[in-house]
Amino acid sequence: MDYLAWNYSDYKGWRSLGPYVMTIKISTNLIDDLTKKARLIPRLRLHHNFHIDYSDAVQFLVNAIDINSYIRPHRHIADPKSECLIALRGIFALINFDDDGIIVDVIKFGSEKHINDVKNYGVNIPPEKWHTVIALKKNSVLFESKSGPFNPSIAKEFALWSPAENSPEAIYFLKNLRRYVDTI
User: Fold this and answer.
1) Which residues contact 41 (CB under 8 A, 6 or more apart)?
2) Which residues partner with 47 through β-bridges?
């Protein structure tokens, strides 16, 4: 079954059969499709959920992040759950900040193709850490996993010292982050 061919709503009542009703593929077709679509939308990133809904015990997805996508620095303190990010394609930088917005740590991570350059396949981020992630290569895709249930209204606390997404300041902020990461 191709990833686009099935819809969870077609499997009403599948939960009663247990958690492993179907095998889910994270295919090159999925990743290629997501990266193409991500370039066409304003946020320049697009995710594909593999969990059924926000009440699931595990939330997992793949996220195609364009090299020019800005993810506003945030933390997960109101819903304190760590998140795990693993590079499937490309290279990323996790940037951690202190409470005043000063960069305290940068961890580069990448897929197997890039492991000699970055030495890390992924990261696990504690909920209290202010952070953002930037893609360092075109067509980068990561796998993300987090404990559920997921409550979107309290999932992220955005850093007040950071510009909002889609603001003119966000472009400048991202450019400066990239410049800093490039020096490491």
Assistant:
1) none
2) 63
Print burial letters for 152-169: b (CB count within 10 Å at least 16), e (below 16).
eeebbbebeebbeeeeee
Please give the residue range of the domain that contains residue 173. 8-182
Please write the tens of the pLDDT for every residue from 136-149: 999 999 999 998 88
- Could you tell me if residue 116 is inside a domain? yes
With respect to residue 3, please indicate whether it lies within any of the assigned structural domains.
no
Long-range contacts of 4-11 (CB under 8 A, 24+ apart): 4/33, 8/52
* Mean per-residue pLDDT of the chain: 88
Q: Is 112 inside a domain boundary? A: yes
Structural domain tally of the chain?
A: 1
At residue 42, the pLDDT reads: 94
Which residue, among 71, 74, 72, has the nearest Cα to 142 in the 3D structure? 71
- pTM here is 0.86
100-155: pLDDT as tens digits = 999 999 999 999 998 888 999 999 999 999 999 999 999 999 999 998 888 878 88
Assess if residue 153 is contained within a domain. Answer: yes
Is the confidence at residue 168, as pLDDT, over 60? yes
Q: What share of the chain is helix, strand, coil (3-state, %, to 5)?
A: 20, 30, 45
CATH number of the domain enclosing 21: 2.60.120.10
